[in-house]
Design brief:
mainly alpha; 2 helices; two-stranded antiparallel ribbon
Length: 82
Amino acid sequence: METREEHDELINRKLQAEMTRDKDGRYCVKLPFVSTEVPLPSNLIVAEKRLVKATEKMRKKMFTGNMTKFSRTGSQKASLKK
């Protein structure tokens, strides 16, 4: 593993090699990102579970709301018949 100074020296050499000037005379360099890639975990399973739960909750809420509305209108019709 390289030391911090070695890493900094490598970055400086890369910047010097890649430095250019645009038509207005300004210096242009690429950003010195570290090249090691960190793999990101897949969240597909968690997302699918959340989708299922949210859908179930929405359906339950809609069913409960419709049943409440139905019971209200049903009791209103029953009281009108009396």
